[in-house]
Design goal:
signal; globular; 4 helices; alpha+beta; 46% helix
Length: 159
């Protein structure tokens, strides 16, 4: 009876360990510390994007490409810093100031629910915008922020 109980406990420990490892792998974290900003919330029920949150496996799968993409602009002579991800924290500060100045002319806070993800000098724009919002002008103005290479618009129109 003691031998059977010992096997059952060992099996339980293994099952718990495997379950814990599987759960830990599914945990989404901002492993690259990429700036992720929730900048407006005027449109109700706009779903939050996933942002830069990844599982451990997704992070490992992307590691080589992230390094390659990060260094390619410096190798090509298009960046003053050795890795394009190093710009993102500065860009986050600049884009926050820019957004404050844009609100007077575009009233973007009153017509949007937006999140910005900054990765390697790109701004990923996610969220919901009202039908009467001048999205083209807003995206263009965001793209004029210092060191921004591209704005990728992934918004959806909501009434």
């Amino acid at each position: 009876m003691t031998e059977r109980l010992s096997i059952t406990r060992s099996t339980a420990v293994i099952v718990i360990a495997v379950s814990f490892a599987a759960h830990a792998d599914d945990t989404r974290e901002n492993r690259g510390n990429d700036p992720f900003l929730h900048v407006s919330s005027a449109i109700a029920d706009c779903p939050a994007p996933r942002g830069p949150f990844e599982t451990a496996q997704e992070w490992l799968d992307e590691a080589h490409y992230r390094i390659e993409r990060g260094n390619s602009c410096w190798i090509a002579g298009r960046c003053r810093l050795s890795n394009s991800y190093e710009y993102d924290k500065e860009i986050a500060q600049s884009v926050t100031r820019r957004l404050n100045s844009l609100n007077a002319s575009l009233q973007w806070r009153e017509k949007t629910s937006l999140w910005l993800t900054l990765q390697r000098r790109f701004i990923y724009l996610d969220g919901c915008i009202s039908r009467d919002f001048d999205k083209a002008r807003f995206v263009s103005s965001l793209g004029e922020t210092a060191d921004v290479e591209k704005v990728i618009d992934r918004t959806t129109r909501r009434p």
